[in-house]
């Protein structure tokens, strides 16, 4: 990969890493503060820490150096993101954001380190499992 391409790939990784961590934190806080569920809170926290460790193998310093917030043509929030009807909707929207972002991380990690990509794939399946467990017991109203 050329240095320009590498920087662009790292920008994709940076944006999706941030998006995934933010979504995981929202899911964690829903479980913690709204549902008072210690076990589910712990699962999301563990996933968030595992994601940080896995992406860290790609070089966090290089990823952050590639960041170009001002040049990001997709910075603006879309209309559906500014509306949520209830806590379950917040949880679901953030869970989807996490899964999509981890998939993107997995795909782009393949260009840098296949082992990291494989770890991201396993993490993505862990997220699917965790989401299913939580949605099964999700209260519609808090």
The poorly predicted ranges are none
What's the Cα radius of gyration? Answer: 16 Å
Number of domains: 1
- Helical content stands at over 70%
Number of helices: 5
Report the order of strands and helices: HHHHH
Beta-strand content estimate:
under 5%
Would you tell me the structural class of the helices and strands?
A: mainly alpha
Tell me the number of strands.
Answer: 0
* Structural shape: globular
Sheet bearing the most strands, described? none
Mean pLDDT: 92
Distance between the termini: 49 Å
Write the layout of secondary structure elements.
Layout: H1 3-34, H2 38-56, H3 60-65, H4 87-109, H5 114-137
Helix pairs in contact: 1-2, 1-4, 2-5, 4-5
């Amino acid at each position: 990969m050329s240095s320009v391409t590498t920087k662009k790939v790292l920008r994709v990784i940076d944006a999706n890493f941030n998006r995934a961590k933010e979504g995981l934190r929202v899911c964690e806080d829903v479980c913690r503060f709204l549902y008072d569920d210690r076990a589910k809170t712990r699962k999301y926290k563990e996933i968030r820490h595992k994601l940080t460790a896995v992406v860290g193998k790609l070089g966090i310093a290089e990823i952050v150096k590639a960041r170009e917030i001002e040049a990001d043509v997709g910075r603006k929030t879309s209309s559906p993101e500014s509306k949520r009807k209830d806590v379950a909707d917040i949880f679901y929207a953030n869970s989807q954001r996490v899964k999509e972002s981890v998939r993107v991380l997995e795909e782009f990690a393949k260009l840098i380190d296949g082992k990291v990509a494989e770890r991201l794939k396993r993490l993505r399946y862990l997220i699917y499992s965790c989401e299913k467990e939580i949605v099964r017991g999700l209260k519609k109203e808090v």
